Amino acid sequence: MNSLEKARKIINTADKEMAKYFEMRMDAVKLVTEYKRENGIPIDDFAREAEMIERNSSLIENEEYREYYVNFLKSNILLSKKMQHKLLNGMTVAYSGVEGAFANICAQKIFPDAKCVAYADFKAAYRAVEKGECDCVLLPIENSHNGDVGNVLDLAFFGSLYINGVYEADIVQNLLAVKGAVIDDVKKVISHPQALGQSANFIEKHNFETENVVNTAVAAKMVAEMGRKDIAAIGSAEAAEKYGLNVLASHINESNTNTTRFAVFSRSKRNPSASDDRFIMLFTVKNVAGSLGRAISVIGEHGFNLHALKSRPTKELVWDYFFYVEGEGNVNSDQGRAMLEDLKECCSNLKIVGNFEKEIRI
Fold first, then answer.
1. In sequence order, what are the residues at sequence separation of 6 or more whose Cβ sits closer than 8 angstroms to the Cβ of residue 334?
2. Per-residue three-class SS string for 144-164
3. Per residue in 285-295, pLDDT tens?
């Protein structure tokens, strides 16, 4: 046997082993995909990919081979993601509104292979996931200019779903009207209260009347159907294109840094990870003097940093409230478990509704 034959024999043996491990790897990818479907987690995880490439390439002792192995790893990642896209083709994501709504636009960015399903309002979209009609639901929880979306916080408290990711998206509001209309024709604008609030200065400047509707894209659809020049909608450029409207004025929201934070809710709670550094917690305090102050102190004493603390009426008793907390730190660590145990002494109800690695900007 000459040297070429020996080399080819070694390559054939190596290829045979790699084929076996490739099948093993792709079987694992199927499990990963199913987990992502159940927990409403997108395919792309660039931080995880970079960490894996760095870790695995360090196993190559021959530096001459390392760059080729990096390319080999990147190729494997692309193949894995290609199969995930194929497997997630039947995934369904609920949102509130109609096509062209900001939630619809963001859902398509986060889950490009999923089917987005529209529901009339936040509650209907949330219940669709609870009932198993959809795999997950994307709902807004806060706008940087106009504050909390209280109805969604209420659903998080009273419902059974978990938040497995939070995404921050830039929101650009536009004045949308039927073709042929000009701004001077417009007497009234319709949109979601959040959009009207974000565009309050523009509305006041033009002395427009306002009317609340359930969603910005619904407003665009209504304006298109009415065909009146004196009524305009406030919404996205995508909604204008979808419903055949013209953009009479763009970027009419008061803040140039207008962003909305969306949460992905699903029926399953994602597995804890050592890299988790964000949590969302809901609780009520016992009817004892100082209970709320004690709860806040417990969180700090265990080394957790509070990003937000908000109150909402429980609607069960007069002047009874639940508290929505966003914090930094891993609640599944030893300190996290100790914190939760200590919180039980001053909290009557306590629920970790979400834990994840970080907030993602889309």
1. none
2. CCCEECHHHHHHHHHCCCEEE
3. 888 888 889 99
